[in-house]
Amino acid sequence: MNRKLYKSNQNKMIAGVCGGLGEFFDVDPTLIRLLWVIFALAAGSGLLVYIASAIIIPEG
């Protein structure tokens, strides 16, 4: 089983990062988005990590 992480084209809101993570881990992308917002508000660096992920993760 050789899976690769890609940005989602179907579950895309902003850049497709959360949709891609949801597809990769077989989890609802809404849950990933919610966790990402909580991380951004709690740690403060969530927005930077999201932007870096949008740049690093390839298109699907």
UniProtKB/TrEMBL annotation:
<keyword id="KW-0812">Transmembrane</keyword>
<feature type="transmembrane region" description="Helical">
    <location>
        <begin position="34"/>
        <end position="57"/>
    </location>
</feature>
<feature type="domain" description="Phage shock protein PspC N-terminal">
    <location>
        <begin position="3"/>
        <end position="59"/>
    </location>
</feature>
<dbReference type="InterPro" id="IPR052027">
    <property type="entry name" value="PspC"/>
</dbReference>
<dbReference type="GO" id="GO:0005886">
    <property type="term" value="C:plasma membrane"/>
</dbReference>
<keyword id="KW-1003">Cell membrane</keyword>
<keyword id="KW-1133">Transmembrane helix</keyword>
<keyword id="KW-0472">Membrane</keyword>
<dbReference type="Pfam" id="PF04024">
    <property type="entry name" value="PspC"/>
</dbReference>
<dbReference type="InterPro" id="IPR007168">
    <property type="entry name" value="Phageshock_PspC_N"/>
</dbReference>
<protein>
    <submittedName>
        <fullName>PspC domain-containing protein</fullName>
    </submittedName>
</protein>
